[in-house]
Write a structure and sequence with these properties.
It is built from 17 helices and 17 strands. The relative contact order is 0.12. Strand 6 (298-301) and strand 7 (306-309) form a beta hairpin. 37% of the residues lie in helices and 19% in strands. The two termini are 22 Å apart. It has 3 domains: 9-145 and 191-285, no CATH class; 290-431, Protein Transport Mog1p, Chain A (3-Layer(aba) Sandwich), CATH 3.40.1000; 440-493. It is globular and about 70 Å long. Helix 5 (123-138) packs across helix 9 (193-210), helix 7 (157-167) runs antiparallel to helix 8 and helix 10 runs antiparallel to helix 11 (251-265). By secondary structure, the protein is of the alpha+beta class. The protein has a 7-stranded antiparallel β-sheet with strand order 8-9-10-14-13-12-11. Strands 5-6-7-15 form a 4-stranded antiparallel β-sheet. A 3-stranded mixed β-sheet has the order 1-3-2, with helices on both faces. The longest helix has 20 residues, at 216-235. Keywords: Hydrolase, Metal-binding, Metalloprotease, Protease, Signal, Zinc.
Length: 495
């Protein structure tokens, strides 16, 4: 969640995303352009128009030497595509996001999150992922999809789960998608399996052209699959939901295919492992305190000076504009919006935002209360999708005359009470508590003669799954062990 949250829920569902913008255009840039053709003026203009909105939606752009390094590698691999002859034709951005994600849009714009870079173990893997994304653009995949498919791409993984599990496949499902649709791994573009495999093939081709080991595509996919499985385990959710968004389904199923592609391309080439590890040393890992921090079932925002906890069995995903909360019984979102000092008006505006501009969705009643010394108001409405009743609850809190926060929750009728402990848990934190919130970062260490997976894993700044996290972070699968004298990544507190 960012330092500025002034837009209502409906407005924060990737309104600036190119997928939505392209779907709404009468002419999609790249339509009718042969695959592999250079970037057109129309594509360049479209990419430039939405670049800053993309950056804002995904936490902002990183700067400094680490970002410059990623930009250098990205431009070098992008130029292998033939979309342009000069590296200057491409814009590569390292995003300040704690979600494993990467994407590219027509016009030469390539994006990758710092969290995905953190997961990688060499420069060839970095080049491979960005080459895969550029491959989608070079093949004009986005321009060859139907407009409806593009619209569906913005719904997001959590929204799809909510619509299917709680609301059913109905018009009311859209309401749930509006609540849960701002998770940071929202699809910017959605591709078919064949398109994903073609992009893998192009990525491997670009790696070979640039002199990298083409097996890097398979190794990074293996790490992604393992990280997805661990994240699902730690969150207590279905591991079939990929963390690399719906843009990149089933990374585990693509590992063997990527290895076959590498064998066909011919083994050999550099990985630049030590260079990569040296250059990313110190990169932030996980949440940025400026966007709030998730620790287990607790979310804390040191700048807004607030904290809350979700019920047992529920998980959170920290987005750039909201915190999405998921579980078996219902879904919720924590966010903020325009506030004029009147909580009743605020609650009513959130209901209207959930329902949409033409909606008559409104709270059946609004009750005033106080939660941990904070003025609060709660509104609730029961609506039907024809076969099932659901409860929509908005719990709003007044932090000042100009600042309010709220939970928007949805659950089957009569079951919204599962969120009551969460609603009651929100409180202010002291300056001392806020100052104690520090981010994690990547620290590159050299294994000593007495080091092992166990000794290095115990240095990880986590209270759970230390060895699993260490192994995945360093691509050590099966019985692989650390080698004295080699560099490895650990995650530490950035003090």
């Amino acid at each position: 969640m960012p330092t500025t949250l002034r837009r209502p829920i409906r407005a924060i569902i990737l309104s600036g995303a190119a997928s939505l913008a392209l779907a709404a255009c009468t002419t999609v840039p790249g339509a009718g352009v042969p695959a592999g053709s250079p970037i057109t003026q129309q594509e360049a203009a479209q990419g430039a128009q939405y670049h800053q909105q993309f950056v804002a939606e995904f936490g902002g752009a990183e700067t400094g030497p680490q970002a410059q390094y990623v930009e250098q590698v990205g431009k070098n691999i992008a130029v292998q595509s033939g979309l342009a002859n000069a590296q200057s034709a491409f814009t590569v951005t390292l995003l300040n996001s704690s979600v494993d994600n990467a994407f590219a849009v027509p016009g030469g714009y390539v994006y990758i999150t710092r969290q995905l870079v953190d997961l990688m173990n060499n420069e060839a893997e970095l080049a491979g992922v960005m080459g895969h994304e550029v491959g989608h653009v070079a093949a004009r995949h986005s321009a060859r999809r139907e407009a409806q498919a593009q619209q569906n791409a913005i719904l997001g993984v959590l929204g799809q789960v909510l619509a299917g599990a709680v609301l059913g496949d109905s018009a009311l499902g859209q309401l749930g998608q509006k609540i849960a649709g701002t998770a940071p791994q929202l699809a910017t573009l959605s591709y078919s399996r064949n398109q994903e495999l073609q992009a893998d093939q192009l990525g491997v081709t670009y790696l070979k052209r640039a002199g990298y080991d083409p097996r890097a595509m398979a190794s990074v996919l293996q790490s992604l699959a393992a990280q997805n499985s661990l994240d699902a385990q730690l969150m207590g959710r279905d591991s079939t939901i990929p963390e690399w968004a719906s843009t990149h389904p089933d990374p585990a199923g693509r590992v063997q295919n990527a290895l076959q592609l590498a064998d066909t391309a011919g083994v050999g080439g550099v990985t630049n492992r030590d260079t990569f590890l040296t250059r990313i040393d110190g990169l932030t890992y996980g949440d940025d305190p400026k966007q709030g921090m998730i620790e287990g079932r607790t979310f804390t925002h040191p700048e807004y000076r607030l904290t809350f906890s979700v019920p047992q069995g529920y998980y959170m995903i920290n987005g750039t504009r909201a915190v999405s909360i998921g579980g078996q019984t219902g879904q919720a979102q924590f966010s903020s919006g325009l506030f004029n000092g009147n909580l009743d008006t605020y609650v009513a505006s959130v209901f209207k935002a959930i329902g949409g501009d033409q909606s008559t969705l409104a709270p059946q009643s609004i009750q005033k209360t106080t939660i941990n010394g904070i003025p609060a108001a709660v509104g609730q409405a029961r609506v039907s999708n024809g076969s099932q009743n659901v409860d929509v609850v908005v719990y709003a809190y007044q932090f000042s005359n100009t600042q309010a926060f709220h939970f928007a929750a949805i659950a089957p009728a009569g079951q919204a009470g599962v969120f009551n402990p969460m609603f009651q848990s929100l409180r202010r934190i002291s300056a001392t508590e806020a100052s104690a919130i520090v981010p994690r970062k990547i620290q590159v260490v050299t294994a000593g003669s007495n080091d092992s997976v166990g000794t290095l894993a115990r240095r990880m700044a986590f209270s759970d799954a230390q060895e699993q996290r260490f192994r995945i972070l360093n691509g050590l699968f099966g019985s692989a062990q650390v080698v004295p004298g080699q560099k490895y990544k650990i995650v530490v507190r950035a003090r």
